Amino acid sequence: MRSLKILFTNNTLSARAGTELWVRDMALALRARGHQLAAYSTLLGPVAEELRAAGVPVFDDLNDAPWRPDVLHCHHHFEAMTALVRFPGVPAVFICHGAVPWEEEPPLHPSVRRWIAVDGPCRERLLDAGVPADQIMTLRNFVDLARFTPRSALPDRPRRALLFGNQLNESNGLPVVRKACRREGIEMEAAGLAVGRVVDNPEKLLREFDVVFAKGRGALEAMAVGCAVILCDAPGLGPYVRTERLSPLRDLNLGFRTLTDPITVDGVRERLRGYDAADAARVSAWVRDNASLEGAASEMERVYEECVAVGAETDAGEVSRAVARYIRSVSLRVKFHEGIRHERDLLAERVRRLAIRRFFLRQ
C-alpha cells in the first residue's frame, strides 16, 4: 500500500506499560513498512525516548508536529480530541483499550471513521457510548514474535515462577503468591512497576521461568515465549491457561474480567498443580499463529486505507457540535470531582476546628 503519514495519540508515553508499549510496537512495525510515524502525548518519558531513538518524532505540543497527517490513530479522549481539533479535515481511527478507565471514554467526533475494540468489554463500551455497531471492529492484542522467541522445552515439573505485572505488590497479593509457590517447592520472583523492578527486556526475562503469573499483554507475551501462564493481578486470581480455554479468555483480553477469584494460597496452589508442559507448548503455538504484531499491523493498514478513502467530516456545524458536547461532558466531570473535593475539604476543616475547641474546653 502507499506510504501514509500517521499520527498516534496516547495518554502518556512514559512508563513501559499497556498502551504505551502498544503504540511503540505498532509505530515501529508500521515505520518498517514504509509509513511516516509521529506520536503525541503530554506526558513523555522512556517510551518516548525509545521511539525517538528509532526515528519516530515524539512531541507534547501538537504545534510541533512535523507534518500534517493523512490519518489520526487515536487513543484516549483528551489527546484524541486535541488532535482532531488541531487537524480538521483529517480522518481518524479510535481504539478503546479499557472498559473502565475514564481516559478510554470514546470521543464522539464525526471525523472518527473507524472504531476499534481490543476485546468484548471494550466493544460493549463503544456501543454503550452510542457508536454504531457497523463502525466497530475488534483487533485483539498482539506479540512481537521477532522479540519474544520460543524458550527451550519446559521441564516436567516447574522450578521457577515469575509474578509479572504492574499492580501486585507486598500489600495486595504478592506475599500470598510467594507463600503458595514456596509450599509447592517453586522459587518465585516478581517484576513490574509496583515492586520497583521495571524490565526493559521482558523477552529475555520471561525465558528464565517456567510459570508466569500475569494478565493482559504480559500473559500473552509469556505464552508466546512458551511459559505456562496463570492469570493473576491485583484485582484477583484467574485460571491456569489451557488450550481449550484460550480463545474465550483472549476474547476478554486475558484481562481483569478473567480475574474472578480472590488470591488465596489454596487457589494459587491448585492452579500450580494444573501445570502441563505439553499443553503450554500447544498454547504457545496457538498464540504465535494467531496473535502476531505483523498480522495486527496489516489489519491497521487496511483500516487506515478505509479511513482515508472515506475522508473526514467536512460539515463545520457537525464538528463544532461534537466539540461542544465533548467540552460539556469534561466540564461536568471536573465540576463534579471538584465539588466532592471542596466538600471534603470543608468537612476536614470543620473536624479540625471542633478538635481544637474540644481541646481548649478540656483545659
Key terms:
single chain; 363 residues; alpha/beta; Rossmann fold; 2 domains; 7-stranded parallel β-sheet; 5-stranded mixed β-sheet; 12 strands
How would you sum up this structure, described in words?
The chain is α/β, with parallel strands linked by helices and 363 residues long. It has 2 domains: 5-142 and 293-315, Rossmann fold; 160-290, Rossmann fold (3-Layer(aba) Sandwich), CATH 3.40.50. The protein is 44% helix and 15% strand. It has 12 helices and 12 strands. It has helices at residues 18-32, 46-53, 77-86, 120-128, 174-183, 202-205, 216-225, 243-251, 265-272, 277-290, 293-310, 316-361, and strands spanning 5-9, 36-40, 58-59, 71-74, 92-96, 112-117, 136-138, 160-164, 187-191, 211-214, 228-233, 236-240. The chain has a 7-stranded parallel sheet, sandwiched between helices. A hairpin with a 2-residue loop joins β11 (228-233) and β12. α1 (18-32) packs parallel to α2 (46-53) and α1 (18-32) packs across α11 (293-310). The longest helix has 46 residues, at 316-361. The mean pLDDT is 90.
Topology overview:
Blueprint: E1 5-9, H1 18-32, E2 36-40, H2 46-53, E3 58-59, E4 71-74, H3 77-86, E5 92-96, E6 112-117, H4 120-128, E7 136-138, E8 160-164, H5 174-183, E9 187-191, H6 202-205, E10 211-214, H7 216-225, E11 228-233, E12 236-240, H8 243-251, H9 265-272, H10 277-290, H11 293-310, H12 316-361
Parallel strand pairs: 1-2, 1-4, 2-3, 4-5, 5-6, 6-7, 8-9, 8-10, 10-11
Antiparallel strand pairs: 11-12
Helix pairs in contact: 1-2, 1-11, 5-9, 7-10
